[in-house]
Amino acid sequence: MTDKRADLAGPGIGNYDDLEKILPGDYRSLLTPRETQKAIFEVKDYIEDHLCKELKLMMVQVPLIVDVESGVNDLLDRDGSRTPIQFHISNDYDKHPIDAQVVQAATKWKRVALKQFSVRAGEGICTDMRAVRKDYFLDHDHSAYVDQWDWERVITANQRNVRFLKEIVGRIWKVLKGAERHAQKVYPRLKSKKYPNLPDELTFLHAEEILDMYPDLPRKARETEVLQKYPAIFIIGIGWPLKDGYPHENRAADYDDWVTETGSKGGQTFHGLNGDILVWNPVTKRRHELTSMGIRVNAETLKLQLEMAGQMHFMDQPYHKGIVSGDLPLSIGGGIGQSRTYMLLLKKAHLGEVSVTVWPKILKEMCAKKKINVLE
Questions:
Q1: What's the mean pLDDT in 81-100?
Q2: Structural domains in the chain, sorted by start
Q3: Which of 252, 267, 221 is nearest to 13 (CA)?
């Protein structure tokens, strides 16, 4: 059995010998590089337009760099394994310097932005977010360059429940399915028997339920197995320790609410108001994460989660003080991977076919041998 602890945070494959075995050997892109670029923007425009309509969002500007003292950068998990790029801005000969970080995601910034833009309950914001995550292993669907539709919506206290979470997830799935249909209308070749379409319906499963199905498997292996049965799922409750003592995956303690009790089944209490959409990718024949999202912490659950994570010192930062004081609104939000979505809907074998970033020489040579066109 693969070590469950080692599986908690590591998102990638881990070495290039394994990656070479995983990349498809019979791959041929259904679109030319030129067509791919046009298709990317067809999908991008469709999703931005329809996501904003479905969730009542408005597009806003988003930072690439933030002040360290603000506490709004995303640490992604709570084990310290993924740290942001930090640099010093001397400004006027260090009279008024700034220590800044490149964002890893806009998760916490968005909640502050809801107040800044006077967003009301039932409305929200969406961003065309760019970030750098330097601690990823660079494989077929992880890169140091990250692009997301990072969105956030104001909610009321009585919407902090699983029913409302599922409603919002269902609306997002509707947009993704619509984008798939739109891409295939513009480029009919994308409708392929070899690479089946996404299912119309999304299956909702709690992380505890998946653990019950595959108790001896680590997290990624459980996801791979359950996707053979349900090719598109939303996994609820990511962050709270499951009955085997491990969370489904580590999650940061200061945005998604993974501590709230949401029900029980067979004597097992369920926790968490967050989750991920995962699908089976017929091109790579692997699990494929599209979005991570959730109802955000309130004052009570923020304190509980920071205590569990041993991070109570964060309470001194403006963002965290704003949640405790009630100055920042209650919200739900998430990030939908742009290049991940393009890769899936355009039937691509590698993220580098739809985004331009840095890749090691060994990966580029590996892809070239397999007829995978990695952009430079």
A1: 95
A2: 5-369 (3.30.930.10)
A3: 221
